[in-house]
Amino acid sequence: MATITKENIGLLHEKLTVKLEKSDYLPAFEKTLKEYSKKANIPGFRKGMVPAGLIKKMYGPSLFTDEVLKSVDRELISYLQNDKLDIFAQPLPVESDMKQLDVNNPLDYTFHFEIGMKPEFQLPDLSKAKITRYVVTVTDDMVDSEVTRLQNRYGNMKDQEEVTTEENVLNITFTETDGDGNEVEGGAKKDNSILAKYFAEGFRKNWMGKKAGHTEVAQLKNAFDEKEKEWIISDLGLKDDPNAADKYFKIEITKIGLLEKRELNEEFFNQLYPNQSVVTEGEFRGNVKEEIQAYWNGQANNQIHDQVFHQLVDHTQIDFPEGFLKKWVKSQGDPSTGAQDLKTDEDVEKEFPKFLSQLKWTLISDKIVQDNAIQVSPDEIKAFAKQQLFSYMGGANLSDDQPWVTGYIEKMMKDRKYVEDSYNRIQTQKIFEWAATQVKPADKVISAEDFTKMVEEHQHHHH
Hints:
There is one protein chain. The chain has 14 helices and eleven strands. By secondary structure, it is α+β, with helices and mostly antiparallel strands. It folds into three domains: 3-116, 2-Layer Sandwich (Alpha-Beta Plaits); 156-260, Chitinase A, domain 3 (Roll), CATH 3.10.50; 296-461, Trigger factor, domain 2. Strands 6, 7, 8, 9 and 10 form a five-stranded antiparallel sheet that branches. The protein has a four-stranded antiparallel sheet with strand order 1-2-4-3. Strands 5-11 form a two-stranded parallel ribbon. α1 (22-39) crosses α2, α3 (140-153) crosses α8 and α11 (378-392) packs across α12 (403-413). The longest helix has 34 residues, at 281-314.
């Protein structure tokens, strides 16, 4: 009868010794061998009449190993369940144990495994954490800018014969050339649509009074100022070329337009806010201001989530079986290449801090989910899929019960990866929603510029 003993070999690091007697695996091996003998289809022998010795010679070693390992697995699983051991990953076998197996000499065998125990820990008291809720001030300038953006977005493009103003929209084609304007074979080529005012001040005068078909040859660094130049270089697919700004391009106007802003009238208000009875410009601006405030409130909530995340990670003390975990990481090979070769000790040490940080958050998340019975239902995943679909459609007012909408959702629910990703996203959101109910944030009024700068500096610090 098999026995298992446990020995501590480090912090939360145990060695399991599985002692297997012949009687634990040999009857099953002999039974399997007989079944193979009955089913084997070997040339020169009638089915079911293959000599047992030949079957044992052909299939014995692999069947023998399988039955021994099945017995070991069965004993291990039973032991872990009965003793309610909460472990990381799977037990790691000691490789040398496999060399002892011999189908021609069945013996009592001993196998060794290492396991890493999951630690017990306490979460910090979030009600005592210093959390800030940033309240972004929405200014008249922000409302003016958004109103202008909406007027332009929903405006009408009117064709024009020639360039008359910096506000003209120029449809242009970029073609890479040499300094004399000769096209470079295999060079970059791209169509674009740009306001005349986005060209550098000294260069944009070249367009004034010109019609479709007019061309200019220039280096990108002379045609555009810094901000626009970087955007154009990226659009041309030259972001990784250190000499991109020095390249020459033939820039040809293919079409000239002028955007006519939408008038601020009731028709426009109703288009943007149907069924809301927005009649006056004041009411319209009030709605716009509410939307801007809602956006910044959402960003502020994200900041609360970020602060909560750091409170939980930085102030939760968790001990790990690092000896076991490093061995486990080393055994995983390289997932990016699919290689099964063992990683070097240097590789393990290099990636271990990041691995441990992710593992810590996983344990914290699991504890919050279990302690607060946080669940994600199939209906919530379906609702999430529907919300994503409507978002992809530009927020159009789509009916929930259209057959193609239902068909799309049913299709996504059969996609295992999509369901798993959606489950994790919804669960994470619920974790932070729970955490937000535990904290007592202090409000702090801040400008949009200062808030944005703060977030960018924080992101830069953590990359």
